Amino acid sequence: MSGAPLTELLEVSVRDAASKHVLDAIGNTSLVELRHVVPPDSARVVVKLESANPTGSMKDRMARTMVERAAADGRLPPGGTVVEYTAGTTGISLAFVCAALGYKTHFVFSDAFSDEKRYTMRAYGAEITDVQSDEGKITEQLIKTMIATAGEISRRPGHWWADQLNNHDGEAGYQALGEEIWHQTGGRVDAFVHAVSTAHSIHGTARALRRHKPDITVVAVEPAESAALSGKPSGSHKIEGIGIGFIPPLWKPDEVEEISTVATAEAKVMARRLAREEAIFAGPSSGANVVASLRVAERLGPRATVVTIIVDSGLRYLTTDVFRT
User: Fold this and answer.
1) Predicted TM-score (pTM) of this structure
2) Taking the domains of the chain in order of start, what are their residue ranges?
3) Most buried in the list 96, 182, 255, 288, measured by CB within 10 Å?
4) In what residue span(s) does the Tryptophan synthase beta chain-like PALP domain sit (predicted)?
5) Are 234 and 254 in contact (CB under 8 A)?
6) 59-161: which CATH topology?
7) Strands 159-161 and 191-195
8) Which CATH class for the 11-57+174-317 domain?
9) Mean pLDDT to the nearest integer, 233-241
10) Catalytic residue (choose from 93, 154, 260, 285)
């Protein structure tokens, strides 16, 4: 090969690069610094662009880990069907992974979540069962009805329930995210701020970061209208993908230093600002992450670095009121 022409070497290199499995495109996303929405004299705020994953979401990481582990230990039979209740983001990622690995999917969804998510899950071949919401509100009752429906469907032959709220494999999917953040920041991370749904992503990422810096500050984010983690009453909100209205079974309060609440309106305004001022197109949960990060950044001052996550792409919310202004 050493005497081969340059064109031959390039052809081999291109073939090798193209032979990677589509799932290998998950991860190694960019980390960028926010330049315009951060006030003067605040800490540096950097965001991990998880919207650059194959489906446009950080949940690709969790989905791959859960499906591959379930297949490896026999919980998911060959050619079987993965069942899950979902606000859409996890469903899209599971549908993507299952399409790549030859499994079927059946998701419990609701009209409380964007049409883009429904269409994307269907594009990957998913079957969808709907649970009607109360005028599009995300509530504890809605989530629990979706969970119960998924449990019923999972009892069918050849079906495996991913059950993200109780599946410990989900956290392992985010260990690499923490490692990437540590290396991309050159070890300059003073605080990690992130919204909570199942709690897998905040705990898995923080655990990896703490292996390098045990005293890092970890801040959880939840909707102000349904601040269950903060001990307040469950309510309704419209920040898709977070704030399930009750304490997630795998939530570990001892691994978080503080909880920051963000109102739906604040999250949506910040999502719009990120697009217009930072050229970062993201959904409302990412907006909530940034709102909470700016609070932490102001408190820590200009010598510190705050890291948060751009959870998914704004393309998933074009038919919602987030961007119809």
Assistant:
1) 0.91
2) 11-57+174-317, 59-161
3) 288
4) 23-311
5) no
6) Rossmann fold (3.40.50)
7) unpaired
8) alpha beta
9) 93
10) 285
